[in-house]
Design goal:
The complex is a heterodimer of chains A (341) and B (394). With 341 residues, chain A is an alpha/beta fold. Helices cover 41% and strands 15% of the residues of chain A. Chain B is α+β, with helices and mostly antiparallel strands and 394 residues long. The relative contact order of chain B is 0.12. Classes of the chains: A alpha/beta (341), B alpha+beta (394).
Chain lengths: 341, 394
């Protein structure tokens, strides 16, 4: 009798355990129950995710998480930011330490498949470039043969550098250091002839870390495509949908000319597309399993995509990056939202 | 029990749960079962979760092309090489820095340890302060300091400091090496022969001394064998020596051999840090030998060198070797801090590998296997040496 009881108890525990495993797929419910989003960001990259002296996070990647929090909870501050190094990021997402990775991460086939991630879209179209000191008199990356290049490990950057060097018969000597501050210091102290990462990152480093920004220049070559975007775990489909469509709503809002300040005013618009987006005509919120105010709240929290861009990396920021590829499709760029309807 | 006498006609009957033998077995089985169950649960749970999230698993990536470059390699390597080769590069880099670190820190530590016992007040104090300051600053911090000092204050390649054909810049220390020549291989063989011959000679000399009491100048003969044989080959081959001198071409020096700043900073940091601990171990070892021992050896007519070798050292080493083993293991494990200053050791390379392939569990397992293998090898060697050198008490 005793042994039967034990077996029954063990079986019950096991069943509960297996059931718990299956339930974990319903990520969105778990986040709703917790009341805040765990958002994996970088350890500090100006324009994308960086904490100020008061510990307040700003940047495009940060705003994506705030927008999702606003869409889900009606409050853009219900996010906890978890700084992750390039090496930690995927393990942190795989193990469920963060709900979403919004950390200037390049969308690649291998990450989308073998790493067990799902990318929800592209929030910033970037490309890898080189920065050199002006006094080296280098005008093109092809003149960098034999040069020592500083690069962070565990990134597509490291692979692109090796690929491009092989394709163009330019031999580099890499110096690979994990921590961003250390690699920047190694470059500015002259340990490396060139520093390579995404062009936006180079601009951020030059603007915020260089002893004299004018002593350094970016080379014209952009050697890769780096579409950056948020990623979630395989199997969290509903949660992925929410992130995907919240971001699309921000892009759509720019197209419609809806700014953070004008959300309430625009609700009175006669345009059926705007009425759907802002929840005046209900339906979209229900599809996502959130309130009908989801897009309105997201736009109120961070502004439309254009506002978000200019504030963090564009004219309103020290980086002063042009819109380039990130302009809307009808303004010379490739930023394009599928129909939010 | 086989030795038990059959006097007690009927052994006292004990309930099985009070029998210590049965109880012992039961506890052992329960504990063993729990450990196995835990391991099984961990492994299957991990596999299940990975399966559920469609994360790739297994060691298949080892034979795939790595695609990344490494700045400091002892064997030929390019981004077209496999992950397996990249890991080999990392293992060799770890072994290189660990072995050199062990040699240098032992020398430096011994000098400082003896210096601290010196009757010279200034020397003793300096060595004392060295130990107290260095061992109280975390190693990581020291590595950052050395690396920053080297990269910030060394000149660029164009303004490199030059000593003969050696160039010192923030690209590293470049020095000339002899160009490879077929005769060099024969010199290497001659060197091995010389070493083997001197072992045989030492045995013969010892046996002869035991039998006849006559001594043989083993030291000089060994030196002659080890240096002389390769030298004869070298002269016989007609002095095949062409130097490969480093030259500044474009951004960097070409030719010769380079010690990169990352390697240099790591070796310097490990050596200086560990030497402080070794100094204390050496000091303890020497102090542990009673002064009467050397006096007794002198009274027997042993010369200082012989008395040190036959009387003092065997007793001091008995105290020194076991803690020294821990320090050697520490150097090996501490070399993994290389990742902070960009030296491509096995951890740095496996970290990159894990990130590119996403296979963290396999990568971590490989790191653990590497360190376990190296540490156990050092441990076995030191235990063997300890047994060999230790005083045989009669």
């Amino acid at each position: 009798m005793l042994s039967k009881t034990i077996i029954a108890a063990a079986a019950a525990t096991l069943t509960a355990f297996v059931a718990g495993q299956a339930m974990a797929g319903a990520k969105l419910d778990a986040i709703k129950a917790r009341g805040e989003i765990l958002c994996g960001v970088s350890t500090g990259l100006a324009g994308f995710s960086i904490a100020d002296s008061q510990g307040k996070w700003t940047g495009i990647d940060v705003d994506v998480c705030r927008a999702v929090a606003a869409a889900l909870f009606g409050d853009g501050n219900k996010v906890k930011f978890v700084p992750l190094s390039a090496q930690q990021r995927f393990t942190a997402l795989q193990s469920g330490e963060v709900d979403v990775l919004s950390r200037n991460t390049t969308y690649t086939q291998q990450r989308d498949t073998a790493l067990g991630l799902n990318f929800t879209g592209v929030t910033y179209y970037d490309g890898q470039g080189f920065m050199v000191a002006k006094k080296t008199n280098v005008k093109s990356a092809k003149e960098l043969g034999g040069a020592t290049v500083c690069v962070q490990p565990g990134t597509t950057t490291e692979l692109n550098l090796a690929d491009w060097g092989r394709a163009n018969k330019v031999a580099f000597k890499p110096v690979v250091i994990e921590k961003l501050e250390e690699i920047e210091q190694a470059f500015f102290s002259g340990r490396c002839d060139a520093y390579t990462t995404d062009a936006s990152g180079l601009a951020a480093t030059r603007a915020s870390k260089a002893p004299k920004p004018d002593d350094y220049m970016l080379l014209p070559e952009i050697i890769s495509k780096e579409p950056l975007g948020p990623a979630v775990q395989h199997g969290d489909d509903q949660w992925a949908d929410l992130i995907r469509w919240t971001f699309n709503a921000l892009v759509e809002a720019e197209e419609y000319g809806i700014t953070a300040a004008k959300v309430e005013e625009m609700k009175k618009s006669d345009n059926p597309g705007i009425k759907r987006l802002l929840g005046v005509t209900p339906g979209l919120g229900k599809n996502l399993g959130v309130s009908e105010e989801w897009a309105a709240n997201a736009i109120k929290a961070v502004g439309n995509y254009g506002e978000m861009y200019e504030r963090n990396v564009g004219k309103g920021s020290p980086l002063k990056l042009d819109r380039g590829l990130n302009a809307l499709w009808n303004a010379g760029g490739i930023m394009y939202s599928p129909p939010v309807r | 029990m086989a030795g038990r006498q059959p006097q007690a006609s009927v052994p006292p009957r004990v309930a099985p749960w009070r029998d210590p033998v049965i109880r012992g077995y039961v506890f052992q089985i329960v504990v063993f079962g729990a450990v196995v169950a835990l391991a099984w649960w961990l492994v299957t749970n991990t596999l299940q979760n990975m399966e559920r999230q469609k994360i790739a698993s297994g060691f298949g990536f080892i034979t795939q092309e790595s695609g990344f470059d490494i700045g400091d390699t002892l064997i030929p390597y390019s981004p077209a090489s496999t992950y397996g080769e990249a890991i080999w590069v990392g293992i060799l880099n770890t072994l290189r820095v660990a072995l050199l670190g062990i040699v240098f820190s032992t020398v430096l530590g011994t000098v400082i340890g003896i210096g601290r016992l010196s009757t010279n007040w200034l020397l003793a104090k300096i060595c004392g302060w060295y130990v107290e300051i260095i061992r109280n600053i975390p190693l990581l911090l020291q590595l950052f300091i050395w690396y920053k000092l080297i990269t910030l204050y060394s000149p660029g390649p164009r303004e490199a400091a030059t000593i003969g054909n050696v160039f010192i810049s923030n690209r590293g220390v470049q020095f000339p090496v002899p160009k490879a020549d077929p005769a060099h291989m024969w010199m290497g063989i001659a060197l091995l022969l010389g070493i083997a011959a001197s072992f045989v000679l030492a045995r013969w000399a010892k046996a002869r001394q035991h039998a006849t009491g006559q001594q043989f100048p083993t030291g000089w003969a060994t030196l002659g064998l080890i240096l002389g044989l390769p030298l004869i080959v070298f002269i016989g081959a007609g002095f095949p020596l062409v130097w490969d001198v480093p030259e500044l071409k474009g951004f960097n020096f070409q030719g010769g051999v380079v010690l990169l700043p990352e390697f240099f900073a790591l070796l310097l940091g490990l050596t200086i840090y560990t030497a402080a601990f070794i100094a204390e171990i050496v000091r303890a070892g020497i102090l542990a030998v009673n002064r009467g021992q050397s006096e007794a050896a002198a009274a027997l007519g042993l010369r200082p060198g012989t008395s040190m070798r036959l009387v003092i050292l065997p007793q001091a080493l008995r105290v020194i070797i076991p803690p020294m083993t821990s320090q050697y293991l520490n150097i090996t494990k501490n070399s993994s801090l290389a990742i902070a200053i960009g030296y491509p050791d096995v951890v740095a390379i496996l970290n990159t590998t894990m990130n590119q392939t996403g296979q963290a569990i396999e990568g971590t397992a490989l790191i653990m296997a590497c360190y376990l293998t190296v540490s156990l090898s050092i441990s076995f060697f030191m235990n063997w040496y300890n047994k060999k050198i230790s005083l045989v008490e009669r």
